[in-house]
Amino acid sequence: MKNFSFIILTFNEEQHLPRLLKSIVDLNASIYILDSGSTDETLKIAADFKAEVKINPFENHPKQWDCALKSFDIQTPWIIGLDADQIVTPELFALLQNFKDEDHKNTNGIYFNRKNYFKGKWIKYGGFYPKYLLKMFRTNIGYSDLNENMDHRFIVPGQTEIWKNGHILEENLKENKISFWIAKHNRYSDLIAEEEIERLNNLRNQTIKPDFWGSPDERNAWLKRLWWKLPLGLRPFLYFSYRLFFKLGILDGSTGILFHFLQGFWFRLIVDVKIKEILKPKP
Questions:
Q1: CB under 8 Å to 107, separation ≥6 — which residues?
Q2: In a 3-state reduction of DSSP, which class is residue 67?
Q3: Region class of 166: left (phi > 0), else alpha (psi between -120 and 50), else beta
Q4: Do 146 and 66 contact (CB within 8 A), yes or no?
């Protein structure tokens, strides 16, 4: 038996799930899937790969991950949490194939390096690579950060490691259709606007201690705290310029620049507009 099990979230992932499962099946690790009501071939694909499946209605990613971690009887000392549109590369596969719990006794979590793709293009610049995500953690120690409304992250107390070599590839093929991307991020903007209003009213706090020189997540917490202090409406312009020029996003070419514009400017501007609408005094 492997020292780890996989947990995957799904919803109508017939396009992505076979790709992910084929990349991990030869690790011979247990696979658990929390689905949120798929109506396509997702559940059949999961059954073909002998994954254990449970169903839970989706509210947001942090709550869905919290449910996933509590729903399955995981017997391995480690859990790897993946999204259905991710793939384990052969290099990461090799690291996991040789993984031994006794070699990581003082570690509670491991960061994987992610490569993000948009319309078939690897987004290498603009601050998107390297991108370290805490994806592997000790069972009953790692948990989902419920102080986030949209961005999900796992949290572990104690020491963590960063695996710079070996990657997870992330590419949502549905987003090749721009109408899907816009509809999806319009929904996400509602969640983030709601979250920022709650933070403004001290109804929601950061779980992770902000520290620019700390772990990848502590650094992100520090940057988020700075973001919340910037003027609404101005910060999308600052962020887009920062990504495009200071972080060399312009080198990602036309497809990459489109991604940075949509994700770094348009999306952030819509969030700010919605926050202003909520804060606007009613006549």
A1: 158, 159, 160, 161
A2: helix
A3: left
A4: yes
> Checking phi first, is residue 111 left (phi over 0); if not, alpha (psi -120 to 50) or beta?
beta
Specify the pTM: 0.95
- Which residues is 35 bridged to in the sheet? 10, 55
What the block records as the tokens of 172 is 């949502």
DSSP characters over 11-40: SS-TTTHHHHHHHHGGG---EEEEES---S
pLDDT tens for residues 216-257?
A: 999 999 999 999 999 999 999 999 999 999 999 999 999 999
In the three-class reduction of DSSP (H, G, I as helix; E, B as strand; rest coil), residue 212 is classed as coil
From the number of C-beta atoms within 10 Å of its C-beta (0-12, 13-18, 19+), residue 103 rates as: exposed
Collapsed DSSP state (helix, strand, coil) of residue 75? coil
**Closest-CA residue to 36 (of 64, 1, 2, 15):** 64
CA distances from 38 to 14, 46, 79, 251, 270 (A): 9, 11, 24, 38, 29
What the block records as the tokens of 181 is 């991307």
